[in-house]
């Protein structure tokens, strides 16, 4: 079976809201054909973390949003249908406290009309603090990916989103790909702290050199594993840096908070190219 990878420009998980927030900035074509990764969806609704959830720091943002979302039932009833009608290619980010929850999410989303693929969130900067399945070792992430892959059609992509940890990224990418991930997303926010000492995750241009190093390491060691770069993508130059390092696509996140037209501009600059691969 073959799975078509999204790209070359995607909206990173949680950074496009419900999709409606981007509609006014999408340009003449609207949202048609936009590859959007939803905020991480859990089985039950989550209110998210206590405020303040975001703090601007030099080079980016520290956040501790706590994965707020309406839960799977509400997402399927309201948010997903709107995105499908708008012509969005929807990749649903999923998160759970147990492997069973990840598997349940994948099974239910496998039959939901309009779901183009899944992104498995196994790289949160503070999985324990947010109540997610604890991923300390690459085999933990691989076990989650395997559980998801068993429940989701092989002709649709499953992306594994990993932390940009240079010392473990190749091992993590290899383990997740062998477990059935179509591609790996490098990376998620880097563990950090708010000015008051609370735990959070750092994202934005400040993490780009780390994420770029991780993309290059994976591409060098595992040239057959598709990599999607994420971290500080804000213009054509920063996107091309990831593509030149071996990424097949990039995700845009923090930049959208500063300039919500970023994705539409990059979509125009980087003409979409179909990328087909043999599913693992």
What would you say this structure looks like, in words?
This protein has about 280 residues and is α/β, with parallel strands linked by helices. The protein has a single domain (about 10-280), classed as Alpha-Beta Barrel (TIM Barrel), CATH 3.20.20.70. It contains 9 helices and 14 strands. It has helices at about 20-25, 70-85, 100-110, 140-150, 170-180, 210-220, 235-245, 255-260, 260-270; strands spanning about 1-5, 10, 35, 55, 60-65, 90-95, 115-120, 160, 185, 190-195, 200-205, 225-230, 250, 275-280. The strands form 3 sheets. It has an 8-stranded parallel beta barrel with strand order 2-3-6-7-8-9-12-13, surrounded by 7 helices. A 4-stranded antiparallel beta sheet has the order 4-5-11-10, with no helix packed on it. A two-stranded antiparallel ribbon has the order 1-14. Helix 3 runs parallel beside helix 4 and helix 4 (about 140-150) runs parallel beside helix 5. It is globular and about 40 Å long.
Overall average pLDDT? 92
Provide the low-confidence segments as ranges: 273-280
Task: State the CATH architecture.
Answer: Alpha-Beta Barrel
Which strand-content bin applies to the residues?
15-25%
Shape type: globular
Task: Count all strands and give the number.
Answer: 14
Q: Please, how many domains?
A: 1
Cα separation of the termini: 9 Å
What structural class results from the helix and strand content? alpha/beta
Query: Could you give a short account of the major beta sheet?
Result: 8 strands, parallel, barrel
